[in-house]
């Protein structure tokens, strides 16, 4: 891939991220109701993300350790 395409790709992705962040912080309050089921789902998603990250670290621990020991 040529250098100009990579530069365009980086600028494009950076602009998308900036637009998403600005859009996220410009949203006003929704005054929405969160029932217990949705809170439980959020807790389950957080637990799954933490467990997944832990398993990933466990699987690649030797590679991570060797990278820091070099």
Characterise the protein shown here.
With 70 residues, the protein is mainly α. It has three helices and no strands. The chain has helices spanning 3-25, 36-59, 61-69. The relative contact order is 0.05. The mean pLDDT is 86.
Largest sheet: none
Shape: flat
Mean pLDDT across the residues is: 86
Q: Which bin fits the share of residues in helices?
A: over 70%
> What is the radius of gyration?
20 Å
Which structural class should the secondary elements be placed in? Answer: mainly alpha
Calculate the terminal CA-CA distance, rounded to whole Å: 31 Å
How many DSSP E strands?
0
Observed structural traits:
70 residues, 80% helix
Nutshell version of this structure?
This protein has 70 residues and is an all-alpha fold. It has three helices and no strands.
In terms of topology, how is this protein built?
Elements: H1 3-25, H2 36-59, H3 61-69
């Amino acid at each position: 891939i040529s250098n100009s395409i990579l530069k365009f790709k980086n600028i494009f992705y950076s602009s998308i991220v900036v637009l998403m962040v600005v859009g996220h912080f410009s949203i006003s309050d929704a005054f929405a109701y969160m029932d217990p089921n949705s809170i439980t789902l959020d807790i389950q998603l957080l637990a799954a993300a933490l467990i997944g990250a832990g398993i990933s670290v466990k699987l690649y621990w030797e590679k991570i350790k060797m990278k820091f020991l070099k």
